[in-house]
Amino acid sequence: MNIYITDDKKYYDDCVDIRNKVFVEEQGVPADLELDEYEEECVHIILLFNDEPAGTVRYRVLDDSTIKVERMAVLKEYRKLGFGHNLMTFVHIHARQQGYVWAKLGAQTHAIKFYNKLGYEKFSDEYLDTNIPHIDMIKQL
Question: What is the pTM of this model?
Answer without folding.
Answer: 0.94
